[in-house]
């Protein structure tokens, strides 16, 4: 009887933890910026899947390690200024609609199941809106979040990545 009670108690402790992992929220981040430049010029800066460093200051080097640049299933590795890496896979690329979608396969960011879309669209004469949006979960979903691994930490990190990239894109696109 004591063994049955102990097993029941143990099961009741494990189930909530596994439920916690399965019920982890899908988080979303969306940022847009208006740039005083024609959309074709802005698209030309962000459209090369093999050169994110051309416009994002955190990226030191981009390398296609599988597939062909700007084609579905291409895989790139971003080397960051601090030496960290992020491996990403291109899901779709539409030059006509000035948009591409990709996912993070692995990397230093505190996220998992990250899928993102970057799009460029003219909004009025000489003004372009760039939108960068994603959905993701924080890393380490199988356990209680450790310090620095909360939903808020993951969201703040992605917001910082987007802000840094979009602000720099605006700066380099509006420079005459």
Quick recap:
With 176 residues, the chain is an alpha+beta fold. It has helices at residues 2-22, 39-46, 151-174, and strands at 27-35, 59-66, 75-80, 85-94, 99-107, 111-124, 127-138.
Please provide a written account of the structure.
With 176 residues, this protein is α+β, with helices and mostly antiparallel strands. It has a single domain (25-174), classed as Alpha-D-Glucose-1,6-Bisphosphate, Chain A, domain 4 (2-Layer Sandwich), CATH 3.30.530. Helices cover 30% and strands 39% of the residues. The chain contains three helices and seven strands; from the N terminus they run H-E-H-E-E-E-E-E-E-H. It has helices at 2-22, 39-46, 151-174, and strands spanning 27-35, 59-66, 75-80, 85-94, 99-107, 111-124, 127-138. A seven-stranded antiparallel β-sheet has the order 1-7-6-5-4-3-2. Strand 2 (59-66) and strand 3 form a beta hairpin. The radius of gyration is 20 Å and the shape is globular. 24% of the residues are buried. Residues 1-22 have low confidence and may be disordered.
